[in-house]
Amino acid sequence: IVADEHVDTEFGVGALGVTPAHSIADFEIAERHDLPIKQIINEYGKMMVGMEGVKGLKVEQAREKVVDWLRVKALLIETEDIIQNVGTAERTGAVIEPLPKLQWWIDVNKKIRLPYSNINGVNAGDEVSLKELMLKVVDSGQVNILPDRFEKIYTHWIENLRDWNISRQIWFGHRVPVWYRNGEIYVDVQAPEGEGWVQDEDTLDTWFSSGLWTFSTLGWPNTDANDFNTYHPTDVLETGHDIIFFWVARMILMTTYLVGEVPFKTVYLHGLVRDAQGRKMSKSLGNIVDPVALIKKYGTDALRMALIVGNGPGNDVNLDENKIKAYKKFANKIWNITRFVLSETEDINITSGYTSRDEELIVVQRTLIDEVTTEMNEFKYYLVSEKLYHYVWHTFADEILEESKGIFTNGSPEDVASRKRFLRESLITILKVLHPFMPFITEEIWQEVKSDNERDILMTALWPTL
Q1: pLDDT in tens, 127-143
Q2: How far apart are CA 302 and CA 249, in angstroms?
Q3: Strand segments (E) across 25-100
Q4: How far apart are CA 408 and CA 397, in angstroms?
Q5: Per mean pLDDT, which range of 200-214, 341-355, 382-396 is the poorest?
Q6: Confidence band (pLDDT; 50, 70, 90) for 93?
Q7: Distance CA 144, CA 268 (A)
Q8: Which of 39, 157, 389, 413 is deepest in the core (most CB within 10 A)?
Q9: Phi-psi category of 56—alpha, beta or left, where left has phi over 0 and alpha has psi -120 to 50?
């Protein structure tokens, strides 16, 4: 009998039977008190020990059998229903029974000497742990995480990081690069020479493989490769906030250790796409929305806008079909704007001057472009898309085009020429700023409206400056 702070005296009978081989919490208790670790459940979830009639049973069956035996022997004092946290398999719902198994690990606290460093605050030859490297690049601002509230979450997680288990007992994946022969162990990326070597059957954790991505695709370990020098470190990594610890942290760990620099400068985290009621999509709930079906119904651009507008970094988004439908109407509005502008500006004079009224409109447009350019550089895509939506629909279509109809009917030749030039150039500007959000419709329209001095493909056109 041992005393340990992990045991809650107010829970159940206030005592805990310790099974170190089959409970993570019990394993930690055993380590603290130097208790023996004996495995009693095999890989098939059956009892390896026990009296006659118990050995070989599934765990749940064995529990019932033991309780029945205690009852028959008049040794059972009391039974009580207690709610417990039990891990279950996501796909089958079966109870997960921890087992002790020999695994490969990465020691995140061991001091290692960096042969090369382009990391702020760490010089080549310094001794530093992987955990310290992972913390330093974010603390120093060499890696920025957006939204910044996730920097605190990242830091808290890394500060409490334990050694990383990198081996898996599955068939698909990178094999662990370890070979055995007569008690010898050989570790290298290449197989050893000679006969009799047997490779470890385990595979590497998928996040170990994914963690190599930022540099392994660019010619590494040849750090003089053209692709490596051109693209590493990358500017922005965009990924979901739910894998910041699995992927983002692993890439930082791998790259700082193996390359001596950060993998990326900015991490932009998006949220999860949920259903219209805010529930996580899952097969069990039957609420998975097929994006291909939505694209066929409403168009790709409408779906893109519905996912971007109002969806700040790190925030989950509820996928409401009515919102997608609204942006399909916006796409139709852009087509209608284009038809009107093209039909009214066939005889445009690009050298004509602007009236004072059109100069006022240009100032408004210039202010908008300045704002959204700054916000694009600040990764505020949710805000830019919303501003462009309101300008195109409510200002340009509802106000400017309606005003233009009167000018084309009753205006002076100077007014008409000025307005035609303004409309044509405004349409070109609108297509450019909307292209990151609605690339398909804007690219198609671009082929009809681009001037001789513009790029053939909108995707390569220069961002507007007024």
Answers
A1: 999 999 999 999 999 99
A2: 33
A3: none
A4: 15
A5: 341-355
A6: confident
A7: 9
A8: 389
A9: left
